[in-house]
Q: What sequence folds into this?
């Protein structure tokens, strides 16, 4: 492999590249070369396709085929027909509940991971990291087994006397199943940003507040929450939007109870009504943008802290 | 929420008691949440060893038959070819996404420029962009390009790769950006003062120092791509199926115990990679 000429080729390459870096590293050219590939990629494969999708959502769909023209019919159907209204409301409702649950479980977990440290801290980090890396189908399948009629959870709940034995709770193929599954999916997205920001909050601040007579709740509300807000914001926004747009978990655990991404996929695969699917997608994007902008505004008004 | 204050000597008994109760309740909540996180993974492992093909509770009988029958079934069910496609796709996605993201992170951290925040937001935006819309719009645009330009672009490994790179791109920008921010610029300058060229100082000093961020970026993009379902659903053609797509159809077409055995092996593989990388590079700190 190593011939006589290879070292000189390498060193020439080294010198050439280094000279190029030296010349350009303080200029816009250098910055452009570094940034452009990623920016182009986002532009060409995310922004531009979305614009095409937006354009498509106004195309009429007549007798099973897409014709040219302009119509608002797909938006009227998505927002006006009761069936789709209910599905939209359900999708947003589930995303809100999942976000709240993920925060209520995630914040105490993140706090314990940082403040307890040691083995408990490691256990928390590993148990949060592990599900994050497992296939969504496998995790939904696990919940399917746990929540199904003769599964562990309904059996336990009736055995504990929380539900009468003749009417065990129905936890599958409804919103409860979707919420449980999605909370499990989103919890790591909530925990890790909070863990990272919590590492930067000195414990002495909490001790000081407690010594001055603050109780646990006051310490949380007045010290921890404001300081952890950047991490919480990142967690909340990601949780809400990913939960709203997720497909696998609602498809497996929701059964006939559908959310918008399931309807989009059904529409494309069964009727090929692309314009309607496009309109539903654009509605998802608009809700996401609305939530991000609204959240950032609210945050600025409270404390002047940025989000994601 | 904090542990009991050791220094305080004042305190009525009732207060102390309430503190204890709150501590215990808090610990219970934490351990219950850990149980919640691990239960669906554990149950899959458990039912893969039960003799009943259908999953009820409690599991009945212990058997290895769902594992011993796998060698013949895996090929028939299309698992092996899907696994191979998924691994190739995830490796390619990890390398491209981490390279693009790493370069961009370098520019964002090292340069001061106008609209820096805006550019960063644009590059991070796929993180909070509905994945289903990425898949749908890319599929739509492939169709449009074929129609308008008279081309014949087939859905294949390459269309999947584009979709996977775009949705994973924010992760390496964040992990490598975080590594670069903690990094002392003077080390690079010192290397150059001691005679290293720019390229050498980047490759021999900067790269090793930001290695945890690079490794975390590679691991997260690999795992995200390997598990991606909805984008792959739209962008995979008749000739290529990824692992999540096959698992999804197995959920409807095979017995729970059989699926559980396949899923258990898959979990074992992924968790080994992730835990080793957590030990080596502390990847969770970059999440």
A:
């Amino acid at each position: 492999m190593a011939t006589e000429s290879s070292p000189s080729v390498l060193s020439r390459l080294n010198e050439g590249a280094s000279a190029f870096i030296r010349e350009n590293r303080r200029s816009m050219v250098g910055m452009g070369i570094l940034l452009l590939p990623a920016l182009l990629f986002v532009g060409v494969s995310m922004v531009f396709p979305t614009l095409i999708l937006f354009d498509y959502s106004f195309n009429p769909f007549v007798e099973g085929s897409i014709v040219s023209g302009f119509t608002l019919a797909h938006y009227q159907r998505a927002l006006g027909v009761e069936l789709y209204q209910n599905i939209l409301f359900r999708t947003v409702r589930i995303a809100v509940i999942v976000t709240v649950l993920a925060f209520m479980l995630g914040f105490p977990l993140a706090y314990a991971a940082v403040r307890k440290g040691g083995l408990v801290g490691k256990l928390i980090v590993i148990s949060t990291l592990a599900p994050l890396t497992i296939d969504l189908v496998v995790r939904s399948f696990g919940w399917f087994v746990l929540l199904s009629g003769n599964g562990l959870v309904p059996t336990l709940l009736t055995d504990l006397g929380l539900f009468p034995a003749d009417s065990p709770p129905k936890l599958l193929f409804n919103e409860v199943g979707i919420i449980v599954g999605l909370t499990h999916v989103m919890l790591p997205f909530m925990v890790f940003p909070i863990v990272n920001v919590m590492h930067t909050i000195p414990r002495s601040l909490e001790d000081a507040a407690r010594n001055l007579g603050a109780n646990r709740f006051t310490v949380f509300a007045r010290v921890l929450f404001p300081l952890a807000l950047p991490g919480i914001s990142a967690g909340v926004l990601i949780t809400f939007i990913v939960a709203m747009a997720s497909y696998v978990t609602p498809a497996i655990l929701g059964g006939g109870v559908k959310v918008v991404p399931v309807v989009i996929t059904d529409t494309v695969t069964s009727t090929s009504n692309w314009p309607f699917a496009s309109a539903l997608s654009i509605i998802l994007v608009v809700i996401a943008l609305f939530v991000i902008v609204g959240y950032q505004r609210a945050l600025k008004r409270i404390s002047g802290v940025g989000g994601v | 929420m904090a542990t009991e204050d050791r220094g305080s000597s004042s305190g009525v008994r009732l207060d102390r008691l309430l503190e204890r109760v709150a501590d215990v309740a808090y610990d219970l909540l934490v351990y219950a949440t850990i149980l919640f996180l691990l239960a669906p993974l554990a149950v899959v492992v458990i039912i893969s060893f039960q003799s009943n093909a259908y999953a009820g509770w409690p599991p009945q009988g212990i058997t290895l038959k769902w594992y011993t029958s796998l060698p013949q079934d895996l090929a028939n069910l299309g698992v092996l070819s899907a696994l191979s496609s998924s691994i190739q796709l995830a490796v390619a996605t990890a390398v491209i996404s981490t390279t693009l993201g790493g370069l961009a992170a370098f520019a964002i951290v090292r340069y001061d420029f106008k609209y820096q925040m805006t550019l960063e937001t644009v590059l991070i935006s796929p993180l909070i962009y509905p994945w289903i819309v990425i898949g749908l719009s890319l599929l739509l645009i492939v169709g449009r390009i074929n129609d308008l330009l008279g081309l014949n672009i087939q859905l294949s490994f390459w269309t999947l790769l584009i979709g996977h790179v775009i949705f994973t791109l924010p992760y390496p920008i964040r992990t490598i950006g975080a590594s670069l921010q903690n990094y002392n610029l003077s080390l690079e300058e010192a290397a150059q003062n001691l005679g290293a060229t720019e390229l050498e100082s980047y490759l021999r000093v900067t790269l090793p120092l930001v290695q945890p961020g690079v490794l975390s970026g590679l691991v997260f993009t690999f795992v995200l791509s390997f598990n991606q379902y909805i984008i792959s659903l739209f962008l995979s053609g008749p000739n290529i199926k990824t692992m999540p797509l096959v698992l999804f159809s197995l959920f409807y077409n095979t017995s729970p115990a059989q699926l559980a055995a396949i899923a258990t092996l898959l979990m074992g593989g992924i968790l080994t990679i992730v835990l080793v990388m957590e030990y080596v590079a502390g990847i969770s700190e970059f999440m």
